[in-house]
Amino acid sequence: MRLTILGGGGFRVPLVYGALLGDRGEGRVTEVVLHDVDAGRLDAVTRVLAEQADGVPDAPAVRATTELDDALRGADFVFSAIRVGGLRGRAEDERVALAEGVLGQETVGAGGIAYGLRTVPVAVDIARRVARLAPDAWVINFTNPAGLVTEAMSRYLGDRVIGICDSPVGLGRRVARALGADPREAFVDYVGLNHLGWVRGLRIAGRDELPRLLADVDRLGSFEEGRLFGPEWLRSLGAIPNEYLHYYYFNRETVRAYQEAGQTRGAFLRDQQSRFYTDALRPGGSALRAWEDTRAEREATYMAENRESAGAGEREEEDLSGGYEQVALALMRAIARDERTTLILDVRNRSTLAALDADAVIEVPCLVGADGAHPLATDPLPGHATGLVCAVKAVEREVLAAAESGSRETAVKAFALHPLVDSVNVARRLVDGYTAAHPELAYLK
Fold it and tell me: Would the pLDDT of 242 be above 70?
């Protein structure tokens, strides 16, 4: 079975390959094709993968190419993890937004909109090529903003594109541990959009144990979201929010922390990964060791500004191990082997949430098998969550419309309607700033 990874020179590709190395049995991936527009990054990551495979019997063969059509032909699965504009683009997204006093995070607020406007045209081109060159392939999308990009691709691929994210998995794991339960035995009632969802229940042996957690202040304060949001706020919500909702619930504090930081997250990663790609290509050195050291620093500093502003402390050791590669592997196994399982995924709504139309991509538990991923029935969202989900989905739709039409006016509308952008004039200046910073946005007229 062939897996094509778009963004194959990306820093997290070794996580996916590492998961594949541990997979055994029928229907496993036997060939990995890496595609990237940057040949140097491809070379560096290929070296890391070669060290990972050293001594592993029957390790999946690896081939690298800078030709997209070549990468797609014959693929059974396509894993999309591209970053249009690179980390330079992410750093610019943060800079432009923070200069206007609004959030520049890569998937939330102004930064997420700018990233989406750059990414959607490229993702649509990929979807069209997949439909033509590999019509039977399943596309697993991890390209951010994951929900928005998955919805853009679904207009051409239907249900054969499925979005994944590691945030709900990590959240469910932490909630289960706080209750003293085995995460593998818990069903997580999670619902929302990508990076905008809530755990509303956690069932173990058919019983919802979340009320027990919400009633115990000490347990609530024992894991990251409890420290990040505070037990009092979690009890008020009656749910555990995804960590990205900290940008909404504590927006002023977060923006201030980002403005006062010596370096934005994007700029930090840009500089850090630049060193990694240099070190990985150094003769006589270990590309795998360079990657492992860089990854440890990356994971430990994740959402550092948010934790600092909330006084949440350092990340726990258990949360430094990633997780999206395991979701991707579980999804591929479920489809390829018809190993029916339940995973939290980004899929088309159908009739799951009455507040949204059938084609809106949402993030919910899904039953997965050989025929793809099907969202499970869920209770309606509470009013406060419905308002936020509908507002952000409306913004996503404006981003899609702007990307399709090239309308600058529609792009301004997308920014202006977002809950974290508080002025039409700010929205206009953001579009001016982003189009000046990003050649990829030259299509907006």
Answer: yes
Say what the pLDDT of residue 305 is: 64
Does the structure show a pLDDT above 80 at 8? yes
Say if residue 319 is exposed, middle or buried (CB neighbours under 10 Å; 0-12, 13-18, 19+). middle
To the nearest whole percent, how much of the chain has pLDDT over 70?
95
**3-state secondary structure labels for all residues of the chain:** CEEEEECCCCCCHHHHHHHHHCCCCCCCCCEEEEECCCHHHHHHHHHHHHHHHCCCCCCCEEEEECCHHHHHCCCCEEEECCCCCHHHHHHHHHHHHHHCCCCCCCCCHHHHHHHHHHHHHHHHHHHHHHHHHCCCCEEEECCCCHHHHHHHHHHHHHHHEEECCCHHHHHHHHHHHHCCCCHHHEEEEEEEECCEEEEEEEEECCEECHHHHHCCHHHHCCCHHHHHHCHHHHHHHCCEECHHHHHHHCHHHHHHHHHHCCCCHHHHHHHHHHHHHHHHCCCCCCHHHHHHHHHHHHHHCCCHHHHHHHCCCCCCHHHHCCCHHHHHHHHHHHHHHCCCEEEEEEEECCCCCCCCCCCCEEEEEEEEECCEEEECCCCCCCHHHHHHHHHHHHHHHHHHHHHHHCCHHHHHHHHHHCCCCCCHHHHHHHHHHHHHHCHHHCCCC
Contact of 201 with 173, CB cutoff 8 Å:
no
What pLDDT was estimated at residue 323?
Answer: 77
Whole-number Å distance between alpha carbons of 352 and 360? 10
φ/ψ of residue 108, rounded to 5 = -125, 135
pLDDT at residue 24 in the model: 83
Among residues 147, 152, 78, 165, which one has the least CA distance to residue 120? 152
Average pLDDT over residues 178-198: 96
- Please tell me whether the overall predicted TM-score, pTM, comes out greater than 0.90 for this model: yes
pLDDT above 80: residue 50? yes
d(CA 431, CA 19): 40
The two tokens of residue 210 are: 């979340």
Q: What is the pLDDT of residue 320?
A: 42
Is residue 61 pLDDT above 90, yes or no?
yes
* pLDDT confidence of residue 314: 56
